[in-house]
Each structure stands twice: as structure tokens, then as C-alpha cells.
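The instructor's notes for this session suggest beginning with a concrete chain rather than abstract definitions. Hand out the sequence below and ask the class to guess, before any prediction is shown, which regions might be ordered.
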Amino acid sequence: MSQEYMGTAVGVKEPSRIRAAEKPLRRYAYMFLKRVFDIAVSFCGIVVLSPIFILLALIVYFSDPGPVFYRHERVGKGQKKIRIWKFRSMYINSEEIFENFTKEQKEEYYADFKLENDPRITRIGNFLRRSSLDELPQLWNIFCGDLSFVGPRPIVEEELEKYGADANKLLSVKPGLTGYWQANGRNLVNYDNGRKEMELYYIENQSVGLDTKILFQTVGAVLGGKGAQ
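After discussion, reveal the predicted structure:
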């Protein structure tokens, strides 16, 4: 038996096995760094943006007196039910308005869980949604660990059927304030023309580099009003 063979068998791990062992370590390091980033940046954001929170809260209240924040149940990682915070963008009697929707309006809504020219949305609510300012309170969700800055957008339970056999894959990661779909089209891309595929692409290709790219793309999309609704 040659010295070279013995060295390979006893003293040196095969390259493929080394790469396989490194993957979980890279995964854990990535998730650790991501959580540290989420905690640090969300905390700083809440502190620095607190004057804007107060101003927006006053604007929302005086535009349609009632609760300033809206809390909606979504499905999070591992099918955990989470409550997402937003500035309220709809009228107080939005449920009553929905019940009076036409059949066509309800069909449009249930197709992608959005409605163009939604009559439930207040005038200031339209501005908050187009600027994404309505989602600022989700910094608290990120700080608490229900969301990450980057991930698939949190969905309502009824949307899971859109993912079919891939539903478990979707729920294997923490949802995000923004994501690959959000940064690359927002409401211009729906379930019929690629949203599902874009969300799954992110899950399969998560990395620090991709997260950084998505964050910069999101800033550009928001400032440019791309796909806003």
C-alpha cells in the first residue's frame, strides 16, 4: 500500500466530504449574522424613526379617527401564526365595505389577495402604501423575531394553496419585511406571472450577498414607486 493512498484514507478527508461538512456551518453562520443584523438595525430604526412614527400616527388618526395601528394574522416560519403590525390604511368600517363588494371585486381580491383601486383604503392610506411607510411598524416584528429584514413576504393562510407542494419549503424560512419578489416588481408580479417562483428562488439561494442586493433593490423600488399599490 502506497504512502499516498494511506495518507488519503487515514489522514485526509475527501474534498466532497469537507464541502458537505462546511455547508451546515456556513448556514449557521449566515443565520446568526442575519439575526444580529435584524436586531441591531431594527432597534436603531425604531429609535431614530420614532418622530416619524408619532407624526404618521397623528396623520392616520385625524384622517379617519380610530385605531392608528392595524394588526393582521399571517403564517410564519414553521406554520407559526404571527401578527404583523402596520399603520392602518383602511377605513374603520372596511369589513362592511368588503361585504358590499361586487362578485367581480371579490374574485379579483381572492386571485392575489389585493384589489386595484380598493375602496376600503383611505386617501392617506394610499400614500402610506405607495411609499411603504405603512410597514414601518414591522420593525417591531423584526426586533421580536417574527420577521427578518429579508425573506419571503408573510402570507395569509388562504394563500398557502397557491404554493401547493412547495408550501412547506415556503414556511421553512422566516418571512421578511422585503424579499426577492418585493424588490423585483412588487405588485407588478402576481401569482399568475411569477411571484411564487421568485419567492422560492430566494429560499433556495439565500446568502449575505443576495440579501444585500435585495435591500438595495428595495430602496430603489420604493423611491421609484415601482410596482407600488
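Then share the key points. Confidence is low (pLDDT under 50) at residues 1-10. The longest helix spans residues 15-48.
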